[in-house]
Amino acid sequence: MMDNNLIIQAENLTPAALAAWREHTGEAFPPAVSPGLWRLPANAVPDADWVTQWCENAQLDCAWVPDARRPTDFGLLAMDMDSTLIAVECIDEIADMLGLKTEVSAITQSAMRGEIEFGESLTRRVALLEGLDAALLQRVYDERVRLTSGAEAMLAHARANGIRTLLVSGGFTFFTERLQQRLGLDHAAANQLEIVHGRLTGRVLGNILDAQGKAEWLLQTAGKLHLDASQTVAIGDGANDLVMMNAAGVSIAFHAKPVVRQQARHSIRFGGLDTVAALLGDRTRG
Predict the structure, then answer these.
(1) Is 80 a catalytic residue?
(2) How far, CA to CA in Å, does 61 sit from each of 8, 114, 255, 269?
(3) Which of 18, 97, 157, 199 has the most other CB atoms within 10 Å of its CB?
């Protein structure tokens, strides 16, 4: 860890957290390098395991980041949509229009935990939407879809550093296409709902974009941009993001299920998407 820095991010440090640090180390906690961001060289960290638990107790995001890493090391940022770029699960909100949100959400959560295969879960959930007036999709987008905290700051940071963006979702093109246009994303991919005579049929057109499909989109897009996989970043929250995340140079679990946090290179549990910048080697925050 001698070539790594411990990155700690939080809106503030509580007096209790500062007291615990002083009691354990005998020293005051070092000052922030910028608002909400602390960077400690590995040789200044008293005990890695203790620090990890201290951050957990204080609800601070922390990560070991190579000292030499810079945002310009990367050329592609791939992100999941539901519960990552946006703060809701679109299919759950669609189901709510039919009074089926509880039933559909239970299947969604089971899939995100990796308990059932994603393709099966999507087929089951979409089947429950049969007969829904397609016009209600726009209502879901207008009334329910909201960006996750820090999303626009993360995307602005990517653009400023020449990093292309890919929104790749097991959700639906109706939403990814609108978000792509709204946010100026470079690439987007998702599943297409079948609509006949203005109503959902309960089926998806073509092959389901599943976990393997997400990884293929990441690698194919990187290839078109003449990038190596090591120059890519993938952010997700559910088990169906893991293949893509494992294929990327840097993987970031965002407010994710335990199975995802365990396998990701970095994990954001408390902060917003704006905290991604420091994990890519940015020296400032805000």
Answers:
(1) yes
(2) 6, 24, 11, 6
(3) 157
Closest CA to 209 of 75, 80, 101, 88: 80
At residue 39, what are phi and psi to the nearest 5 degrees? -130, 120
Could you tell me which residues are beta bridge partners of residue 168?
189
- The label of the residue with tokens 């998407």 reads 273
Q: What is the pLDDT along the chain (286 residues), one digit of tens a residue?
A: 458 999 999 988 899 999 999 999 898 999 999 999 999 988 888 788 899 999 999 999 999 999 999 999 999 999 999 999 999 999 999 999 889 999 988 998 888 888 888 889 999 999 999 999 999 999 999 999 999 999 999 999 999 999 999 999 999 999 999 999 999 999 999 999 999 999 999 999 999 999 999 999 999 999 999 999 999 999 999 999 999 999 999 999 999 999 999 999 999 999 999 999 999 999 776 5
* Buried-exposed string 108-120: b where 16+ CB fall within 10 A, e elsewhere: beebbebeeebbe
H/E element holding 41? strand 37-41
Which residue among 61, 82, 274, 282 is the active-site one? 82
pTM for this prediction: 0.94
Side-chain half-sphere exposure of 219, counting CA atoms within 13 A: 11
Q: What is the chain's Cα-based Rg?
A: 20
CATH 3.40.50.1000 fits 72-279, yes or no: yes
> What 8-state DSSP symbol labels residue 116?
S
Interacting residues of 249 by C-beta distance below 8 A, sequence separation 6+? 74, 228, 229, 230, 231, 232, 233
CB 87 within 8 A of CB 146: yes
Q: Of 49, 67, 80, 92, which one is the catalytic site residue?
A: 80
Name the amino acid, one letter, at 269.
R
Rounded CA separation 146/150 (Å): 12
CA distance 40 to 146: 34
